[in-house]
From TrEMBL:
Coiled coil: none
Alphabetized SUPFAM superfamilies for the sequence: MetI-like
Protein's organism: Actinomadura montaniterrae
Gene3D superfamilies registered for this protein in UniProt: MetI-like (1.10.3720.10)
Family per similarity comment: Belongs to the binding-protein-dependent transport system permease family.
Ranges that cross the membrane: 33-54, 125-147, 159-189, 201-220, 255-281, 301-327
ABC transmembrane type-1 domain ranges (all copies): 119-320
PANTHER family with a match to the protein in the record: DIPEPTIDE TRANSPORT SYSTEM PERMEASE PROTEIN DPPB-RELATED (PTHR43163:SF6)
Keywords assigned by UniProt, alphabetized: Cell membrane, Membrane, Transmembrane, Transmembrane helix, Transport
UniProt superkingdom: Bacteria
UniProt-recorded name of the protein: ABC transporter permease
Length: 337
């Protein structure tokens, strides 16, 4: 056998694992895209049926009881509610494909314009809250993981679990109210409501971040204790590797990879929880649009808000899955797909 033949055979064998990994990646990404598509179809069906499952006539409820039948009929025709159900669904999907969410029944404003005006505020609040979640959870979790590793300081561990469990169990609206009373009305350090500048984002972001941050901190502490018990960590300690370097190079990457799944779920929860927090702090996001729309029977706005928030959650969860596999290519989830 010539050297050329040997080199070719070796190259083929080397390319085989790479091709297999590439195939698994494609299957993994396609599976995630299919999940997003399935979730989107579910959202479309639910938001479409919502207007038909509400007791009574939603158009008359939104326009009021003193409106003439002609006005009600014209509005029903405008919303295609006078057509068969399958025709209504076709119009609904067709309009959404062209990013047309209809017109607000209450204000007459195009719903897509309303969403664009408020989506930025909601995303800013969610991103700021997620940054706080990661910072607080990683610092607290790794710090208390270091303190309680090896079964040390049992009282410290119990105290941490008690405090973190209590903060996690407190509802968002109560956390937001307490922050307003203490830091806005009491100390006047931060504004109580509105979106006037960076300072006005602190309290709503903190109220949104605290429960998931302390929940994730418990996960991080457990993972930190597990990592610190590994043999290579003991070897690094025996070689007198500085503590900061040990955490930055060895502990933090492993803890982050294991905790990222929970962080992704927390981010999805932040998007949903922002509805409550935005109304407490009068933050001009999607949350402050959906609540008046529900009470005012403004169903085009409600449908659009639910669709947008649901799509954000689907995309975030899919992105977290991809990042998680990228950080740890040996995950069994990737092998399954």
């Amino acid at each position: 056998m010539t050297s050329t033949t040997i080199d070719t055979a070796a190259g083929t064998e080397a390319d085989a694992p790479a091709a297999a990994r590439s195939g698994r990646w494609r299957a993994f990404v396609l599976r995630r895209l299919a999940t997003i598509a399935g979730g989107l179809v579910f959202l479309l069906v639910i938001t479409f049926l919502m207007i038909h499952l509400v007791p009574g006539d939603p158009v008359r409820a939104s326009l009021g009881l003193n409106v003439s039948p002609e006005v009600v009929a014209a509005r029903r025709a405008q919303l295609h509610l006078d057509r068969p159900l399958w025709v209504q669904f076709w119009y609904y999907v067709r309009d959404l494909a062209h990013f047309k969410f209809g017109t607000s029944i209450q204000t007459g404003e195009p719903v897509d314009q309303l969403i664009r005006n408020r989506l930025t505020a909601t995303v800013q609040l969610a991103v700021a809250a997620m940054a706080l979640v990661l910072v607080i959870s990683l610092l607290l979790g790794m710090c208390f993981g270091w303190l309680t590793a090896g079964g040390r300081r049992r009282r410290t561990e119990l105290g941490f679990n008690l405090v973190s469990g209590t903060v996690t169990a407190v509802p968002d609206f109560l956390t937001g109210t307490l922050l307003v009373v203490v830091f806005a009305l009491g100390t006047h350090w931060f504004p109580a409501s509105g979106r006037q500048g960076p300072q006005s984002m602190v309290l709503p972001a903190l109220a949104l971040a605290l429960p998931p941050a302390f929940f994730l901190a418990r996960v991080v502490r457990i993972e930190t204790v597990k990592v610190l018990e590994q043999d290579y960590i003991r070897t690094a300690k025996a070689n007198q590797l500085p503590t900061v370097r040990l955490f930055v190079r060895h502990v933090a990457p492993n803890v982050l990879a294991q905790s990222l799944t929970v962080a992704g779920l927390a981010l999805g929860g932040l998007v949903g929880g922002s509805v409550v927090i935005e109304n407490i702090f009068a933050w001009p996001g999607i949350g402050t649009a959906i609540v008046p729309a529900i009470t005012g029977h403004d169903y085009p706005v409600v449908q659009a808000c639910i669709l947008v928030l649901g799509l954000i959650i689907l995309l975030v969860n899919a992105l977290v899955d991809v990042v998680l596999v990228a950080l740890n290519p040996r995950m069994t989830a990737l092998k399954e797909y």
